[in-house]
């Protein structure tokens, strides 16, 4: 049985078809990268995996059961920006998830429980390269450090599924390289199943074990909202050739032009 199974999945907002007929089987521990034109529904798909959006039609199941309809600790998400709480220190940001999990009402741990949680938090922050910044505020961190913090905040909860929505999109190319190594290390160490949206095809090929291209294959110029995007390519990484790469880039650019026209 697949870990995640997507069958004939559709998402519509009113008369706008955003996603049409998605079919996908994902094994636990895969690293799926998602590319596609802006506005073609990649974030919407992540939101459905998170439990923030429901499908209009079709099935989305986790180990054979319907996907939980509410976000839970099994699923974490990191956005391009603003994933961390600005009014909490680095350490408090990562501690909060553990506190809310163990003490949902109070949101505070005391005594040994707090010391144990802090030891986990500090080890996680050390692991993502923020061991020197435990008591800093998010606004005192660079963009790359804020994303390290957001990643630590997600991984401390040991999610089975991690959703990354262009997490490195706002970072300088030099810093992106470091972030790639960090995410690959955490993925290998934990076996988390990752879905990551990126606009950078090279990044998609470099990080993923599988590349999913979201594209609008059907188009009605008179009624652009009539058709949605679907998964036009599902590629195991390592088996692609430059011609295919070029075809994907051209097709995604063509859809981008149509969506922004
Ligand atoms: N809550 C909503 N209500 C109505 N329409 C929505 C809603 N959320 C998304 N949409 C529409 O769905 C379409 C897909 O949006 P989505 O953000 O999923 O695209 P995307 O591929 O992630 O784009 P980008 O790469 O720019 O982030 C857009 O046309 C958007 O306006």
From TrEMBL:
Gene3D superfamilies: P-loop containing nucleotide triphosphate hydrolases (3.40.50.300). Pfam families: ABC_tran. Residues 4-239 form the ABC transporter domain. Coiled coil: none annotated. It comes from the Bacteria. GO terms for molecular function: ATP binding. Keywords: ATP-binding, Nucleotide-binding, Transport. The keyword Membrane does not apply. PANTHER family: BICARBONATE TRANSPORT ATP-BINDING PROTEIN CMPC, SPERMIDINE/PUTRESCINE IMPORT ATP-BINDING PROTEIN POTA. This is ABC transporter ATP-binding protein.
């Amino acid at each position: 049985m697949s870990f995640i199974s997507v069958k004939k999945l559709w998402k519509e907002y009113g008369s706008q078809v955003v996603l049409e007929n998605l079919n996908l089987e994902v094994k636990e521990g895969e690293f799926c990268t998602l590319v596609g034109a802006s506005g073609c529904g990649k974030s919407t798909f992540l939101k459905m995996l998170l439990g923030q959006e429901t499908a209009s039609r079709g099935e989305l199941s986790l180990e054979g059961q319907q996907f939980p309809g509410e976000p839970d600790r099994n699923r974490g998400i990191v956005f391009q920006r603003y994933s961390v709480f600005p009014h909490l220190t680095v350490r408090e940001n990562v501690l909060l998830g553990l506190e809310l999990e163990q003490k949902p009402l109070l949101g505070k741990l005391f005594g040994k429980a707090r010391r144990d949680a802090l030891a986990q938090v500090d080890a996680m922050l050390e692991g993502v390269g923020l061991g020197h910044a435990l008591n800093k505020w998010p606004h005192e961190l660079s963009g790359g450090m804020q994303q390290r913090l957001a990643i630590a905040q997600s991984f401390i909860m040991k999610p089975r599924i991690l959703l990354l929505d262009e997490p490195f999109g706002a970072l300088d190319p030099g810093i992106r390289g470091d972030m790639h190594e960090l995410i690959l290390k955490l993925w290998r160490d934990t076996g988390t199943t990752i879905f990551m949206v990126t606009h950078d095809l090279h990044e998609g090929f470099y990080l993923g074990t599988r590349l999913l291209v979201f594209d609008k294959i059907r188009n009605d110029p008179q009624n652009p909202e009539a058709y949605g995007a679907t998964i036009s390519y599902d590629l195991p990484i390592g088996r692609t050739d430059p011609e295919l790469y070029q075809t994907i880039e051209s097709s995604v650019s063509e859809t981008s032009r149509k969506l922004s026209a």
